[in-house]
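Q: What structure does this chain adopt?
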Amino acid sequence: MMLHTQEEVLTWAMALPPDDRALLADRLLNSLDSPRRREINLLWADEAERRVQQIKNGEVIPLPGKEVIQDIRKTLNL
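A:
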């Protein structure tokens, strides 16, 4: 079995398409699963549900992603 340095693995991973990188990152994070991580996942699920309800109730008006990214780029002068 050939051993690779972290830098070699990172270089290889960064060459993957974005969807594959996201899947790899998710799998790596899940490999670190712990009771605390499960608690955090439940908290994020609760937060997502709260935000969905805010949108449904008209408390929050969502913005298109492209508009948000344009605003961020403008703010950061990119």
